[in-house]
Please model this.
Amino acid sequence: MASRFFAASFFIIWTFFVVTSASVAQQAAPPYQLSVFAKAPAGLSAPDSVAVLGDRVFVGYGDNHLPDGSDGLNSQVVEYKMDGSIVHVYTVHGHNDGVKIDPATHKVWALQNEDANPNLVIIDPKSQQQKMFTFGPTPHGGGYDDLVFRGCDVFISASNPAHNPNTGPAIVKVRVQGDMAEVSPVLAGTANAIDVTSDKGVKLNLQDPDSMTLDPYGDIVLDSQADQQLIIVTDPATAEQQAIRVPLSFETGGGLQAVETDDTNFATSSHGFILFADKVLNTVFVLQKKVFAPGEAYTAADGGPFVGTVDLSTGIITPVVTGLGDPGGLVFVDTSGHSVDNGGAVVESYPRDHGACRDMDSR
Model:
């Protein structure tokens, strides 16, 4: 299926790159090229999470609803073809924030209500059926924001903690069973870490765990958004687990300035393109160049606002796309034909028994 997609999609991709151009207000630094993948459908707004499954793109629209779901409103996850045309619109209860693809089942996991009262919806794109799972009382007092799949484990960021210092978990592991999503703690909000810039030990106080992805080595990369830092978790949920703090900044005329970011993702090959969403501009953009540096990290710096590359040894972000409103969801789409997991695209980076990865009732 992958080879069929990549062979066929190159023509589609290059076609819509040529015929569609971004607004003049948004600028990409050469040699990058920027174009529009899709505008928000009528009645929808605030596109955020972006995930890719084969030749389909899934975008979560938060519609500016309350992030704790207390308004009782619904959000939408829109399935697109690679040419930007709509295949199907899925309705989920609450404010959607996280959308990822389960590599074991090729189903779409959508998280709602990042501030409180969270729920999880698993969507089967083949049948267009969906099932909602509820969580018990959250151990940190907030909601759940984003997720990553690593082998047979599923990790979720525990967002909007109720306490400062954050005595609850910042990352949990989740298992779905029956109609419930059960969690267990992985990384404490006040865990010990090594700061990458000073090489010294620090005690974390993660007040805004947010987006998550995997780096090319299979480490979890957690964005603690308002804290203006990335947390890299090596060997998660094992005795060897370690946390590394990367403080984030960018160069200004007056020197380095701390900046908050949303989604971070990695170029998993030299061939591909980036999709990113802007909640203010109600647009999903395409960022492309002839060759990407494999392993390079890209981030949506909503505090800029810009999209740029981030040096994980210094935390310094170099803007690539400027003139944005509120960039959030971002994913690298690998067109090399290799199976990878970068938090959004189809993945086979960890050997597994697919039948043993997820409970049958989640399939």
In short: The chain has one domain: 2-362. The chain has two helices and 29 strands. The radius of gyration is 19 Å.
